[in-house]
Amino acid sequence: MQTRIAGRGPWLREAILPGEEDAAPLTGEHRADICIVGGGMAGMWTALDLKRRQPSLDIAIVEADICGGGASGRNSGMVLSQWAKFEALQSFCGTEGAIRLGHAFGNSATELDAFFRSEGIDIEFRRDGWIWGATCMRHVGSWRGILTALAKHDLAPFREIDAATITAMTGSSTFLSGIHDPTAATIHPGKLARGLRRVVLKRGIRIYENSAMTRLDRGHPATVHTVQGAIRAERVILTMNAWSTSIPELRSAILVIASEDAVTAPIPDLLEKVGYKEKPLMGDSQLFVTGFRTTKDHRFNPGVTGGVIGFGGLNGARFEGRSLREDVIRDCVRRGHPALAEVPFADSWFGPIDRTRSGLPLFGALPHDPHIFYGYGFSGNGVATTPIAGKILGGLALGVEDEWSACGLVRSPERWLPPEPIRYIGAHMVRAAIARKDRLDHQGRDPGPIVRSLAALAPGGITTSRVAKN
Ligand SMILES: Cc1cc2nc3c(=O)[nH]c(=O)nc-3n(C[C@H](O)[C@H](O)[C@H](O)COP(=O)(O)OP(=O)(O)OC[C@H]3O[C@@H](n4cnc5c(N)ncnc54)[C@H](O)[C@@H]3O)c2cc1C
Known about the structure:
The protein has twelve helices and 18 strands. The protein is an alpha/beta fold. Strands 1, 2, 8, 9, 10, 11, 17 and 18 form an eight-stranded mixed β-sheet that branches. An eight-stranded mixed β-sheet has the order 5-6-4-13-14-15-12-16. The model is unreliable at 465-470 (pLDDT under 50). Flavin-adenine dinucleotide binds next to helix 2, strand 12, strand 16 and helix 10.
């Protein structure tokens, strides 16, 4: 079947090759050594890690849509180090482990570039650097705690910069101060996800697309059932992102909430004129963080968090079509880069984010099924972290004790959120409080104790300025 383009976001529309065919769906009975459910970046990096460790392994990926059809093919393409989450990393991994993982995540951009170059795949890698800044007085210094925690260990991945420097670096006149990480990069998400799929197939890993897992028999071997087929495997790895909420043990550790992006037509002259051509990607310090970047062909790509909240196990929802919050995205551009605020959006889209309380992912085996593994909770930061996730899950699934499988991110899913419908109702209350706090912060007004306490329940995002367990 020819790969569907209609309804998909621009990155996938651009990356799906003309005439490309979906992999055949799973029909009939099959066996595999390892079956991976979910063909996003996490599942595909895991498959490649397993194959690298043991080339003879028979690995199958079962994917509800097409590989990359989830968040992996529709993100903002920001490859960020995770140093902004250092304190949260420390709380799970200890200082030594946090430093080791921090370096691993920080090296991801370089490794992604090298990997895809060696495969002859252009992912439009650009070493743009990242500015995390403040667009109102109340947000100034949001990063200080992190800088202090890092400095205690002689780590200085960020440089503090003032408003004039930010204006010189980006053309934006509304950032009051911030920090700069020169190692961050941007990539084309569709080209990365679909390129990864090509490498996976080239390594002899089987992919079944349009094959949603409808039931998981947890015996040993386990059996992954789809509408038309089944696959028995010694080990199963679940890399289902937001859809992990369909697995009861995994549900309470994540809140599913959409992020949205928009993109303009190519505007090289305007970007040049306003000082934002090939310049650092930027993020503010809102709880519902806003980010900006540009593409290789000089489109402006803003994004916002805090969209639709997922209910229960999501029932296979695909989050397709244009964003219903283009007005919110536009407001964020007005606040963060006013010179670009009136440029029309050529397209917009949204996708689900699997937010954990700390903003860090979770890995492990299901409590009563040690042959079934999970890796999820990337919290909107999957581009740099999923290659490491692949190493962690690869080690876990093969029973290898190494620095990855023994790292502190391997832990049980926290019982963080209550069951439905309380969870859904509560999440809406917290979301409303966050939006109000973000708005009042910009007006220099105090949100009051109720809004402040509700907003404090926000899960971790791109940055974690407070430490939360799990
Ligand atoms: C709008 C947006 C912007 C983002 N921006 C950034 C960014 O700039 N930088 C960054 O680092 N991260 C960003 N992210 C987050 C990043 O995209 C994710 O963290 C990452 O893609 C997670 O990879 P994954 O493989 O876990 O998830 P996915 O790519 O979603 O893969 C999970 C797969 O599981 C499949 N699946 C689900 N249920 C089943 C089932 N029952 N049977 C079979 N298959 C199933 C899905 O179809 C899906 O393909 C963004 C996300 C969004 C939505």
